[in-house]
Specification:
By secondary structure, this protein is an alpha/beta fold. It folds into two domains: about 1-170 and about 340-355, 3-Layer(aba) Sandwich (Rossmann fold); about 190-340, Rossmann fold. Helices cover about 45% and strands about 15% of the residues. The protein is built from 16 helices and 13 strands. Strands 3-2-1-4-5-6-7 form a seven-stranded parallel sheet, sandwiched between helices. Strands 10-9-8-11-12-13 form a six-stranded parallel sheet, sandwiched between helices. The N and C termini lie close together (about 10 Å).
Length: about 350
């Protein structure tokens, strides 16, 4: 059987790395890199560190498209033209996640191809998030939906997806983190901040509110806050001179996967609006404060792996809630069960074999 994977951003290549390996061993696997994250230096380091082979085809989404609708237009045309030109004839086209690359599942579905979606059923119910729209659409058009937890399956059933199309497989990130887990005594003498979501970068004023919260937190613990560089965030910082009165915040990175995993591992705590942090950090034994109003990973909150502190509440309240959570944090194996047992890629291969045979 011929399986085509379509992936475009660094976090999704991390999550797919073990799936790629098993697909290569079990099928005729064609890997398409959409180039949504296109910077050569960063893309290469992720492939090298995780031993991901070279893609069979690489598109130019990030360089050819300035915004979300240009990206979808480019992907809709380029991917379908590529499939027909190269006579790929896939038995299944497999996506992961909620990026614009995953939204290409819609035109492919309309063209008559069979679609699979890893990371299905996630819902924040926050329509401000472009990712929310992308994941809902990809789920809707998918014939096989691989979900991380029973909760995600239940959500899809409530949306009238046929139960025979939904498979609970565990989280792909677990086997990756377990393989590359840092070791040694943790320094715990700094905080890490990763802020990149649209809702936190919607204006200079709002981003400054988030940065002020980080500054308060740094003062509260007398620790530097290592804020990972993100192009849109740096642009807002420069435009508003936002770090002029924030001496505890230090811009760092960007990093490859292993370096960032180590950075999180050795921190006292992480402040992140990333969904991935809510999964990686519990495995690393590190608490996470999430400056958002909602999350598509409620199990992380329910199992006390992370805490929602909101986006625009009083900075002192956000700071104190975060501080109390960080200071009292502990994690045991029962709190990690929702992340699965690290055999997700194996299950995905077995299901594809069974369903497509």
């Amino acid at each position: 059987m011929k399986i085509v994977t379509i992936t475009g951003i660094r976090p999704d290549f991390i999550r797919m790395s073990k799936v790629f390996e098993r697909l290569d061993k079990n099928f005729n696997h064609i890997m398409i890199h959409t180039g949504q994250h296109y910077d050569d230096e960063l893309s290469k380091i992720f492939f090298d560190e995780l031993n991901i082979r070279k893609p069979d085809f690489t598109l130019n989404t990030g360089q050819s498209s300035k915004n979300h609708y240009e990206q979808l237009s480019y992907l809709s045309k380029s991917i379908i033209e590529l499939i027909y030109k190269e006579d790929l004839t896939p038995d299944l086209i497999l996506f992961l996640g909620d990026s614009n690359s995953a939204l290409a599942s819609l035109p492919l579905f309309k063209e008559g191809f069979k679609i699979g979606h890893i990371e299905g059923g996630m819902r924040s119910y926050d329509r401000r998030m472009p990712e929310e729209v992308n994941r809902v659409v990809c789920d809707y058009v998918s014939d096989l939906i691989f979900v991380y937890t029973p909760l995600y399956k239940q959500r899809l059933l409530q949306e009238n997806k046929p139960k025979e199309n939904i498979f609970v497989v565990g989280n792909t990130i677990t086997e990756v983190v377990k393989e590359y887990m840092p070791i040694g005594i943790k320094s715990k003498d700094y905080l890490v901040a990763d802020i990149h979501r649209n809702e936190n970068l919607k204006s200079i004023e709002h981003y400054n509110h988030i940065l002020s919260y980080l500054e308060h937190l740094g003062k509260r613990f007398n620790m530097p806050v290592k804020l990972v560089r993100f192009n849109r965030g740096v642009k807002l910082i420069d435009e508003g001179n936002l770090l002029r009165d924030k001496k505890n915040i230090e811009l760092v990175g960007p990093f490859g996967f292993l370096k960032f995993l180590e950075l999180q591992y050795n921190s006292f705590g992480v402040i992140s609006d990333s969904g991935t942090a809510q999964e990686e950090c519990p495995l690393l034994g590190v608490p996470v404060a999430v400056p958002r109003k909602s999350t598509e990973r409620p199990e992380s909150i329910e199992n006390k792996n992370s805490i929602l502190v909101g986006e625009d509440r009083d900075q002192e309240v956000m700071t104190e809630e975060t501080a109390q959570f960080f200071e009292s944090y502990s994690v045991n194996n029962d709190q990690l069960k929702w992340l699965g047992d690290g055999k997700t890629s194996e299950r995905i291969i077995e299901i594809i074999n069974k369903e497509l045979s």
